[in-house]
Design goal:
CATH superfamily: Phosphoglycerate mutase-like
Low-confidence stretches: 164-172
Helix content: 25-40%
Shape: globular
Number of helices: 5
Number of domains: 1
Structural class: alpha/beta
CATH class: Alpha Beta
Strand order of the largest sheet: 3-2-4-1-5-6
Mean pLDDT: 94
Number of strands: 6
Strand content: 15-25%
Radius of gyration: 15 Å
Largest sheet: 6 strands, mixed
Distance between the termini: 28 Å
């Protein structure tokens, strides 16, 4: 059994027009929502065995903040430049390289690739919002074999849902 949490990077800042897209940082809302999502993930699924992140600044910063809130050593985050603006096949290729000894992986990346990946695994979703996550389990022992045929959707959590509850609104 393999568990995959798909997480889109937190909200990024557009305040630095001189920066390349790859180098854009998170804004304050992105940092706050990512921290909340990290706490939520730890409570919901425990600490991942591997965090795999795009090499883009906003994705890596998301991975670091989530890791800090999940008790995962940030030095062990694996970055892969192939995940930067990757499409489904490229994401699956990166996941196929995850050691099979790992049963629970958190991957941090970008849209539209992550939304398309979620759709690939059988969940109709128009857009995975920033700092939001989807969880899948796969009935396989090898990461190279994850597919729609062995995927079981578990849940989707948007960062704004965590904010609502924190503000006293209990709607899900």
């Amino acid at each position: 059994m393999k568990k995959l949490i798909v997480m889109r990077h937190g909200k990024s800042s557009w305040d630095y027009a001189h920066l390349d897209d790859h180098d854009r940082p998170l804004n304050e809302r992105g940092k706050k929502n990512t921290a909340k999502m990290g706490v939520y993930l730890l409570q919901k699924t425990g600490k991942p065995e591997l965090i795999l992140s795009s090499s883009a600044e906003r994705a890596y910063a998301t991975a670091v903040i989530a890791a800090e809130n999940m008790g995962y050593p940030k030095e062990q985050i694996v970055t892969d430049k192939e995940l930067y603006l990757a499409w489904v096949e490229e994401i699956l290729q990166c996941l196929s390289k995850v050691p099979n000894t790992v049963s629970y992986c958190l991957i941090v990346g970008h849209n539209p690739g992550l939304t398309l990946l979620i759709n690939h695994f059988g969940v109709a979703l128009d857009n995975l919002p920033t700092a939001s996550t989807a969880c899948f389990e796969f009935d396989t022992q090898e990461w190279k074999d994850i597919s729609p045929a062995n995927a079981r959707f578990q849940w989707l959590k948007q960062a704004k849902e965590i904010e609502m509850r924190d503000s006293g609104d209990t709607r899900e």
